[in-house]
Amino acid sequence: MYVPVKGGEVAIARSLEALARARRGDPDVPELTVAQIREQMRGAVDRVMTEGALYDRDLAALALKQAQGDLSEATFLLRAHRATLRRMSHCEPIEFTDIHLDRHISATTKELAGGQILGATYDYTHRLLDFSLMGARPCAGRSVVDEELQVESGFDQEPAVLRPHTSSYHDLLVPPDCEPSGNRDHEPVDITRVPIRPPYGPSETLGHLVRGEEGFLTGIAYTRLRTAGASHPYVEELSAGQVEIMVELEDLGLTIPIGDIDIVICRMVAPVLDGEQSHLAPGFGVAFGTNERKAVAMATVDQALKAGLDPELVLSHSDGVEAAGYVSHLKLPHYSDFQSDLELIRRARSEHE
């Protein structure tokens, strides 16, 4: 396809050299370290890990540094590296009720079991630039107000654990077959090894939504919210914290823990008015780290899919790596293709003259 390109290797080599200089920037400014990115750019790291489908903060931070902060490129790098890794085993289904909470809120229930925990969130900030961050300063530590809030929420006591959610509207919920507890009857599908094709099972749907590009899913969710009418969804429960990952060693017949991961989960409900069949329809979202926007958008889209949103539109187009690759390839030489199109246009015109 690109045979007409001449001298491409030299040009590409020069381009890579220029890229390395651009990545480093002004040599008088201290170089950004992977550790700094990992510790101070958590939102970006969490998003790259989620869409890259690989939980490794160091590698995600490295990808962000290599990609100059380009989230799509960093996701591409991490997913490409993931494809080279040996698959050792599959983990056991995660028990979300065992999550040690850093954050736990609900938009539908004021009195949550264990209390609502705001934790660290941008939800209540004024979205004004903090110019004090322009200069380096030592960490301020916790204030008296911070300590009071922590004590009230139980932070300085034993770690809070998510309790099974019970609600006064449980009888209005349809069977939550989209949630982890409802997927046990379905054999999980490894979406990295199986081509996407309808019909889409529960694990395939959630798998593609987890890896889906956050901006795309947020846009779909926003479209649904603006046209929802009486079916406006609500965040029933949003929790963030740490869960333990268990792996079965088949040769030994043992199930062992391999570590904890940071995770955020969102349960969404939306009213569906249909006479006697009126009910609350559920949606579920999950992401690595504290990637709340992704989890909420995913849960909204998951609920919309159950309400009739075209799964082909969402699942076949939500992958940010595929979308970015297809759009970016338009910048590469298409000389032969373009000449063929020109010839078709000229021929079509001549046939009508």
TrEMBL record:
Residues 177-197 are annotated as: Disordered. Its EC number is 2.7.8.37. It comes from the Bacteria. Pfam families: PhnI. Keywords: Transferase. GO terms for biological process: organic phosphonate metabolic process. It is an enzyme of class 2 (transferase). GO terms for molecular function: alpha-D-ribose 1-methylphosphonate 5-triphosphate synthase activity. This is Alpha-D-ribose 1-methylphosphonate 5-triphosphate synthase subunit PhnI. The lineage of its organism: Bacteria, Pseudomonadati, Pseudomonadota, Alphaproteobacteria, Hyphomicrobiales.
